[in-house]
Amino acid sequence: MTWIIGHLLAIGIGISLGLLGGGGSVLALPVLVYVMGIAPKNAIAMTLVIVGTVSLLGSISHWRAGNIQWKTGYIFGAATMLGAFFGARLATLPFITDNIQMLLFALLMLVASIIMIQRSTRTQKSDDTIPYPPPVCKYCWLWLMSEGIIVGGLTGLVGVGGGFAIIPALVLLGKVPMKAAIGTSLFIIAMNAIAGFLGYLGHVTLDWNLIFSFILAASGGTLLGAYLTRFVPAARLQKSFGYFLLAVAAFVLFQNRGVFSPKPTASTKLNLQMNASVRDTF
């Protein structure tokens, strides 16, 4: 039953990627950790493989529809790949614990949910899938690459693909039309995932059978999501998806609440043991 539930959720991950151009990784990681029982660091690396592969497959239909701007994708993608590799290397250091990674992940999910909910309240214009204000500056390549490094770093550190940040960056800084931003975002997420995975390689254990089965399930969902973009305005799904992410973020924060509790020192543990011994004596 757990296997079935996990793979049904994987289909939902793919639909999110195909329809919204993002949101896949923020669902993939909690599914692997809390449904499939994978350790967080291993799950983050597996998430990068799954979401990267599925995003690459999902970008094919957008490429055939002419919805990928390759030049912008390569420029932004190069910056995100640099950040993702070093973010993953940072995550392998001893002081970055599983709880810290999941806590950071939950906080980012919280931000993503708020952004999605706020966007859903804006008035949709022309044929844009999700409304955004006009580009904020005429020449924004420096800001675009700077944000790419930051988004990539978060990808490597906690496994988020960054679609919720990549798409507005492409629209506002790269002056990319909304539909092209979704397709280009999938291509950039794939580049992100490759670099992040290389940063984890050799430091984690991977369940390749589960990875491949998740890829198959999510790939089917991505193709379905890309097809639904012709009929379903993604803006209608933004609010519901945002509230869903908000609930998942709250759940992950609750599960990792122990990171805020001070750990007992060696002397404290010794005192507790001595007190227990005295109680047992009397």
Automatic annotation (TrEMBL):
<protein>
    <recommendedName>
        <fullName>Probable membrane transporter protein</fullName>
    </recommendedName>
</protein>
<dbReference type="InterPro" id="IPR002781">
    <property type="entry name" value="TM_pro_TauE-like"/>
</dbReference>
<keyword id="KW-0812">Transmembrane</keyword>
<feature type="transmembrane region" description="Helical">
    <location>
        <begin position="73"/>
        <end position="91"/>
    </location>
</feature>
<keyword id="KW-1133">Transmembrane helix</keyword>
<feature type="transmembrane region" description="Helical">
    <location>
        <begin position="208"/>
        <end position="229"/>
    </location>
</feature>
<feature type="transmembrane region" description="Helical">
    <location>
        <begin position="6"/>
        <end position="36"/>
    </location>
</feature>
<comment type="similarity">
    <text>Belongs to the 4-toluene sulfonate uptake permease (TSUP) (TC 2.A.102) family.</text>
</comment>
<dbReference type="Pfam" id="PF01925">
    <property type="entry name" value="TauE"/>
</dbReference>
<keyword id="KW-1003">Cell membrane</keyword>
<feature type="transmembrane region" description="Helical">
    <location>
        <begin position="180"/>
        <end position="202"/>
    </location>
</feature>
<feature type="transmembrane region" description="Helical">
    <location>
        <begin position="141"/>
        <end position="173"/>
    </location>
</feature>
<dbReference type="InterPro" id="IPR051598">
    <property type="entry name" value="TSUP/Inactive_protease-like"/>
</dbReference>
<feature type="transmembrane region" description="Helical">
    <location>
        <begin position="103"/>
        <end position="121"/>
    </location>
</feature>
<feature type="transmembrane region" description="Helical">
    <location>
        <begin position="43"/>
        <end position="61"/>
    </location>
</feature>
<keyword id="KW-0472">Membrane</keyword>
<feature type="transmembrane region" description="Helical">
    <location>
        <begin position="241"/>
        <end position="260"/>
    </location>
</feature>
